[in-house]
Amino acid sequence: MATLLVKNIGLLQTPTGNYSHKGAEQGENLKLKDAAIFIEDGIIKEITADGAIPAGGEDADMIVDAEGKLVTPGLVDGHTHMIFGGYRQHEIPMKIKGATYLDILKAGGGILDTVRKTRAASFEELYGKTEGFLDEMLGMGVTTCEAKSGYGLDLETEVKMLEVLKKLNEDHPVDVVTTFMGAHAIPEDYKTMENGADKFIELLCEEMLPYVKEHGLADYADIFCEEGVFDAPQSQKYLEKAKELGFKLRIHADEIEPMGGSVLAGEISAVSAEHLIAIDQAGLESMAKAGVTAMCLPATSFNLGVSFAPARKMIEMGIPVATASDFNPGSCPSLNLQFVMNLACLRYKLLPEEILTAVTINPACALGMGDKVGTLEVGKQGDLVIWDAPDMDFLCYRFGSNLALQTIKKGMLV
Ligand code: NIG
Ligand code: FE
Prior knowledge:
The structure is a single chain. This protein is an alpha/beta fold. It has 2 domains: 3-73 and 375-413, Urease, subunit C, domain 1 (Roll); 76-366, Alpha-Beta Barrel (TIM Barrel). It is 37% helix and 22% strand. Strand 7, helix 5 and strand 8 (175-183) form a beta-alpha-beta unit. The longest helix is centred in the middle third of the chain and has 19 residues, at 196-214. Bound molecules: N-(iminomethyl)-L-glutamic acid and fe (iii) ion. N-(iminomethyl)-L-glutamic acid (NIG) is lined by residues 81, 110-111, 114, 224, 252, 255, 300, 326, 328-331. Fe (iii) ion binds next to loops.
């Protein structure tokens, strides 16, 4: 039996429970002073406060002194496209000269450029590169993440991506939850066909979704509902098929143009809707009614130089809000979830307590992991971060640095 005691925690701050937090509860965190946590075989056994030490704590195999710092649950990054071939730094000068994200995509670049590079990459190349990203995340306090396919757009490459992610989930300390996103763009050969998008949706519904389900490669399905990509009726067709096959649903909705994606998210009971920068009142109401988690991605707004999703309003309307990196080679080449927290504070105007919920229990629930991670409570995984900060205010304020001093995953120092 491996045991770990983390003692001398100045402030232990965590949301509580196994469910998504909305409205006023989004801002409710448990705060314990002079706390300690005792972890046995990766699971939290006891948490104490006010200088008390858990039973058996002093005999633990390992004792870590938090030196009076802040401890929170390990962060959960609920939305990434972290597996891809190549990079797209060559888009930087194009963007500076005025090209928009959709201009580049329409011209056959953007996602389609990454598709060419991902198809050409071997399993081993993708494994090594993505493993490096997981290491980097872990060093910044992320202990669980979501990762999507979607740079293959053909069965072979989509499967390759998901198999790499499955293998990494087994091999790497970070828990990785996979999403099939074969509907990320219209492939080049379908673009030139008449009704190419409809034909590609047909292929996804009849071949790719059933294959991915049958081989247990992903629990979630996602689609990019956007101008020039898939419209709301096409998204509906794809998501209905995915639902019928037993996938849980996500949708990239209203990122750039309002296309009805967030209304559809509510109607179809998606687990989460992503981006939501251009969401309208009908979309907000549909999501609130159905309890869809808003996966807000402020570093993407920052990188694209566009406006920010109305996350403050979402909380007021009772929509559970999560904030994630959206790490990908195009719209957000950063996996720094701490920077996302800074932006959630500075741009969304969320309070530090609401932000902690948005990077822990709410995304954990959107990944189907709310009973295992996302809070520090007895019975959950011993996933936590010791921060070089006295409190959450400091973490939200000192942007640009990595303040994670020590990440602990399932009771192991990583
Ligand atoms: O979430 N919006 C669609 N997909 C990604 C971007 C992917 C890319 O540009 O490579 C996103 O922002
Ligand atoms: Fe995305």
